[in-house]
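Model the whole thing, not chain by chain.
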Amino acid sequence: MSGRWVLAAGLATLGSCTGYRPIPPDHPCREAAYAIAARTEECTGDVPLALDRFEAFEDTYVCLAVEVGDGSDLIAPEDLYDCAWAIRELPCELVDTYGDDLDRYLALSDACTWIVARRDGKALPAGPSEGGSP
Amino acid sequence: MIALLLGVAAAQSAANCGDGGFPPIAGTSGLANTRAALTTQQQSYSAAAFAERQMFQKIAAGDADELEDGGGIFAWELNTTFGAADVPVYVDNAVHSPQDCPADLRVALAPVDLQAMNLGFGYRKGLVGAFYSASVTYGMVAHPSPYVRGMVWGFGLPMYTTPLLLLAPVTGSWMQTSGASAFAMDYIAGAYVTHPKVGQLSAGYAGSSRGFYVHGNEELLGLHLSTVLKAEARPVSVLKGGLDRLNPAQFAEDLRPIGLTTAFYRDLPFGGGLVASELGGGAGGGGAAGGGQAGGDAPADRFRSAHVDQENLFGVVDLRFAYALAPRPLVNELAVGVHTPAFVLPRNAVLDDLEGATAGARLVGGFTEIPADPTIGAVPGRVATGRIDAVGRFEVDSGGAVVANFKLMLNDPEQLVLYPFSRNALTYSLSIGGTL
């Protein structure tokens, strides 16, 4: 019996430290910002530049909260990550071309307009389905 | 206690969401970190690293007369890390069976668990001998049920993988990556020449890199160097060198309070462990994805780190420090610990001279500042660190000795230098080995 208790206590500790949890409402948006920073570092090797672009993202844009499981099926929550995915798949030649123009990164996927808005109220550039293109 | 109960409750809420194997979401830092963790684990717990960590010291630990009689050495080690990374996964049961699985877990942050198992043995006769060392490393998205998760990692997988460690020369070294999981086997086999007063030179064939493994150390200062050489454009694929438990007291007794100094530099492949087809393109963006991460032109990188340990200060205090140099610099703050007198042995301790049994333990604790690093999705913060080490040494009838170690780590520098994106990762390690 005592062995069971030791095992249960161990598993409880394990479960409490690292278990499944819902994503924060702004998670897909933050992933888009991380993707810009990561791709900048991978393509340029310039870590300070990656940090600068991440900070520029935070200064320029606001993350839109998306609740997973709120009953709305208009947008599947897993599709929100298409924005980050499109940025991470960007070839280095285009990372060089886009440079510090973060709007261009956010025009890579329609999903970006669902999770990010500009702080100054201007609209984001059109995504691929609306005629925008890399 | 409240946090513990809330955590258990949260974990239980996911317990009925299915049998695991949930696909990771492509394009996320969590998947990139998971891939990095899987590769880093393969390198850090490789057959060569294990031989250096657990076997070579035992080979050398005997005086000339005892070595002349011949004898065997063996070592086994199991390292399990819970939550090395968090990866967003698509939980389909949250859509199809909301009565069992909460709807807000449709996209959930799931922990990634890693396990490494090593086995080695050898035979020594006089000043020469032969050795074999193997590793099996694997990792995957954790099972949603804490109970099943604990059972799988604690008992199920170790039981199945132990026999594989003997088959590595037959199957060859190989690795396979899929989504957020990977499996790899690795081995080295070779021979060595040793002298208790001079040092040791080991050489062998490294299966994973199809290269020539060389390790050398000398006994006076504890200098050591090991590498894997290949006939390729980049001939040095692995490099590790430094100082093992330098004891200033051997030169001046007044320096005894300083204790023992260990310092080493390590340079390993990073990212190159992933097969090319896994790095590029892959599944479409958004939604659940099996492959595709980090862009098709992501280069194979290097994982470089420096480690300094000052053990046995005033006989009881230990300082531990680890610094990651590449792929990104990361300072992991100093961890401070205390241990019982019998915990630390000098490098040249002769294991076969052990009489009876001894035991020791060490407690390490503190806080570590985590810097912001958006390239890996790391947010700044302060986390508690903790570590428990215990060791038992037992004389055996054949005249040899068996050493058993247990280690439990939470946010320890040793973990963070390998998995800088992890938060509250829990690692436990078991090892047993000795001379017979």
